[in-house]
Amino acid sequence: MGWIATIIVGGLAGWLAGILMDLRFGVFMNIVIGIIGAMLANAIFDAANIHVAAGWLGYLVQGFVGSCILLFIAKLVRS
After folding, report:
1. What residues have CB less than 8 Å from 70, skipping those under 6 apart?
2. CA dihedral 50, 6, 43, 67 (to 10 degrees)
3. pTM of the complete model
4. Nearest-CA neighbor of 35 among 72, 56, 75, 62?
5. Angle at CA of residue 17, ends 14 and 23, nearest 5°
6. Closest Cα partner for 23 from 59, 73, 62?
7. pLDDT tens for each residue of 33-52
8. Over the chain, what is the mean pLDDT?
9. pLDDT given for residue 1 in this prediction
């Protein structure tokens, strides 16, 4: 998937992860963390040859997982 699509899907994944995990970093910060998490998760999943689903849905799931992990780490650092 291209960089622009990764940014869009990562932003959506970060927003969803922030809502699900009930973290109050703010919408902008959740989206930024989501974009970074999506990029990292996509790279890790591709390197490990793990395919969750085809197309944008797979990238959304991978980005969501990466976003949740990074938001959790951010919560630990913030505490």
Report:
1. 33, 34, 36, 37, 40
2. -80
3. 0.77
4. 62
5. 105
6. 73
7. 888 888 888 888 888 888 77
8. 81
9. 59
